[in-house]
Design brief:
- Helix content is 55%, strand content 9%.
- By secondary structure, the protein is of the alpha/beta class.
- The protein has 2 domains: 138 residues, 3-Layer(aba) Sandwich (Rossmann fold), CATH 3.40.50; 109 residues, Four Helix Bundle (Hemerythrin (Met), subunit A), CATH 1.20.120.
- The protein has a 5-stranded parallel sheet, sandwiched between helices.
- β1, α2 and β2 form a beta-alpha-beta unit.
- The radius of gyration is 19 Å and the shape is globular.
């Protein structure tokens, strides 16, 4: 049985996420990059070097297990398809304690070229913590490393700050109604993004994404969902530049964060979200 990593618990904070918070360096973070492709290794190391991380490389899942047993790491970036031992098998082994008890809960971020929902679900089912598409996007990787490896930065753990949203909107009923509507809008946006053929009618698609990204950002600012405001800004930039690789990764990131936001909203409505305010 695979022992999955528990989600980090949210804690309240009176300070909203800021750009300086998001951009704190990851200097000294010990990253194990697991990939059998030399080009992917070079690209991955280049991105991680910019983030001032300490990097070790494993060529397959078996090497990953051996390196974990021999050294100290904070996070694993795991390719899925590799010879000898693939990323799914390696992750299950890590979660079952085969690399040592201390690594059962280490953040493992899947790296994959596939964007299908089934592939993402397989990553999560194997015990991986998160999911990024190749080629690696600098801003998305940075945000995910902050999310999983900087728990003292509370705003990178929680998607939503309902106490601050309640203060802005005024009452719980209005906030509940507005957040429910925002989640419905996000769901429609995601369905639209996924059904769009990005390379076809590129200019029309780009303008459509820009318009939807601006709507996402406005709602995020109203409801104090800072990560969504940041994602929407990146979406708009990628759409204007017609950068399809970044658009695909950002849409995938938006899907994952929307799922987390939905969970936090349900918990808040039920009165057991740590940031819940009963007023």
């Amino acid at each position: 049985k695979v022992e999955k990593q528990a989600s980090a618990s949210c804690q309240s904070t009176s300070e909203p996420a800021t750009e300086s918070t998001e951009l704190q360096p990851l200097k000294g973070l010990r990253v194990l990059l697991v990939d059998d492709n030399l080009v992917n290794q070079v690209v991955g190391k280049g991105v991680l070097n910019k983030l001032q991380c300490n990097i070790a490389v494993a060529n397959d899942g078996q090497e990953c297990l051996e390196l974990l047993k021999a050294d100290e790491f904070d996070v694993v970036l795991m390719d899925c398809q590799m010879p000898v031992m693939d990323g799914f098998t390696a992750t299950e082994a890590i979660r079952n304690g085969e690399a040592g008890e201390k690594y059962r809960g280490i953040p493992i971020i899947a790296l994959t070229a596939n964007a299908m929902d089934g592939d993402r679900q397989r990553c999560l089912d194997s015990g991986m913590s998160d999911y990024l598409m190749k080629p690696l996007n600098f801003d998305l990787l940075k945000e995910r490393l902050h999310h999983w490896c900087c728990p003292s930065n509370i705003n990178n753990v929680c998607v939503w700050q309902p106490a601050q949203a309640l203060e802005l909107i005024g009452d719980k009923q209005s906030l509940t109604s507005r957040m429910a509507a925002y989640l419905d809008e996000l769901d429609q946006d995601l369905k639209h993004f996924k059904s769009s053929q990005l390379e076809n009618s590129a200019q029309i698609v780009s303008l459509d994404i820009v318009e939807r990204a601006r709507g996402i950002k406005l709602g995020a600012e109203e409801l104090v969902v800072d990560r969504f405001a940041m994602l929407a800004t990146h979406l708009e930039t990628a759409a204007v530049e017609m950068n399809y690789d970044d658009l695909r990764q950002l849409i995938e990131r938006l899907q994952l964060d929307t799922e987390q936001l939905s969970e936090e909203f349900r918990a808040w409505r039920g009165g057991y979200f740590p940031l819940s305010t009963s007023g």
